[in-house]
Amino acid sequence: MRLKNLAHVRVSNVDKKSVEGEQTVRLCNYTDVYYGDSLAASNADYMVASASDAQVSAFALAVGDTVLTKDSETADDIGVSAYIAETAPDFVCGYHLAILRPKSGVVHPRYLFWASRGRAMRDQLSLAATGVTRMGLRTEALANVRLALPPYEALRT
Prior knowledge:
By secondary structure, the chain is α+β, with helices and mostly antiparallel strands. The chain has helices spanning 3-6, 30-35, 53-59, 109-116, 119-128, 139-143, 152-155; strands at 7-11, 23-28, 38-40, 47-51, 66-69, 71-72, 81-86, 91-93, 97-102, 135-136.
């Protein structure tokens, strides 16, 4: 199945700047995802920045989300992922990342995370990346990645 049939795919545009009048947030950044397997909002090391109300609404992280790198210097570093194990109202996905939010009853959140780390998906993402000095994925290319999916009931145990 294509990823867009299993999960809501969102590409973040929340940068590391703080703007007066915007909400203060803690950013899940590229390096947090690149070096972490499971991320929790209670970790005190997240960068503080700001985001508009619309950005907080669109890019707040939820338990069960998979966050992955969508841009990098090399195609091999695209698709590195982390699982969101704990969240908070101010925990937001930062720039150069995408959120994969599993559709309820379609795919188990842990399976989606596991599949995102597999060679099959990583190879597809690497091949879909474009660029010269910086490689990146278009949202459409990410959403159209194919994943093997066992019956949902098999994933509940």
